[in-house]
Design goal:
The structure is a homodimer.
Chain A lengths: L11 E10 L6 H12 L5 E8 L3 E7 L2 H17 L2 H5 E18 L7
Antiparallel strand pairs in A: 1-3, 1-4, 2-3
Chain lengths: ~110, ~110
């Protein structure tokens, strides 16, 4: 269950991970859940947002570019161990960006889910 | 039908739009399609990616921050005209970011869809 991340005042770092899955999804959902839980334990973690239809988009937010790089190393190690990259992803793109401005609207009745 | 955007060498600008819909979806899909088509006609447009499950994530890519700002003005005008913000979105967040690094993998057999 993904929700809109509560991030602090910019600047901070966003890692935009966009992917298209192959036909072989075995073990993918379990891996994705574990990876989101693991991200939340890493230094500098600010939040994560994800959705998937024809493509999947996961945006993770980090206090600094160094924190994002450290997470990338952990994530690649995990995914390599699980042999996932070739098997699960037909294509993917990772973009590392610095968030400079943020604005929005939240209905106070929305709850936290 | 969303696909992974083909973006040039960084730096460029990403606008990350995350939203949760209200119960009233009337007209929303049609508006979203029109907005994606309209974005593609704007100066500096590089590509767009979107997916929706519990939340929706749309990332649009722009040649510069000025191009992204110009798009924001056009988009807000359109959405205001369509009375969408209060009606469709329970909550949303817009983050404007500069993409500094990009890497990935694409299976050459993946096609363009």
């Amino acid at each position: 269950m993904s929700s809109i991340a509560e991030t602090p005042e910019p600047p901070y770092t966003a890692v935009i991970f966009t992917s298209r899955l192959s036909g072989d999804h075995d073990g993918y959902s379990a891996m994705a859940t574990v990876m989101e839980q693991l991200a939340a334990t890493q230094p500098g973690y600010l939040g994560i947002e994800s959705a998937r239809e024809q493509i999947g988009i996961t945006v993770s937010y980090w206090r600094s570019a160094a924190d994002a790089r450290a997470w990338k190393a952990v994530a690649e190690h995990q995914i390599a161990q699980r042999l996932g990259r070739q098997r699960w992803y037909q294509a993917y793109r990772i973009r590392v960006a610095t968030v400079e401005r943020e604005y929005g609207h939240a209905d106070p009745s929305e709850g936290s889910g």
